Hints:
Immunoglobulin-like, 5-stranded antiparallel beta sheet, 2 helices
Amino acid sequence: MTCFNFAVVACLLACFSLRCWAGEADVIDATANCDADRVCTFSVTVQHEDSGWEHYADHWRVLTPQQEELGKRVLLHPHVSEQPFLRALSGIAVPRNTTEVIIEAHDSVHGYGGSKLLVNVP
């Protein structure tokens, strides 16, 4: 095998390792429950093929349409055998003029980039 072929094979193997294979974290469902003061609890379902500590969904966040972060739910461990998984975050104050927010997830290898959801704020 030439050095070039060996390099190509090595690159392909690296790209198909578990670390890369899991892909990005996707938000597949989310709801907002808010009180009269627009302090909300967000329940978010994330799907990610967590492979362990080296590649897992490590947080999700709530953004205004102008990309202002309103809150972040840190995920303290991989969810290898719990997919998809649901987690909540409460105490998020949503500005009165904001009628919808964006929920996006982050993973420890790819960062942000998976499917996001636009959620109506009651």
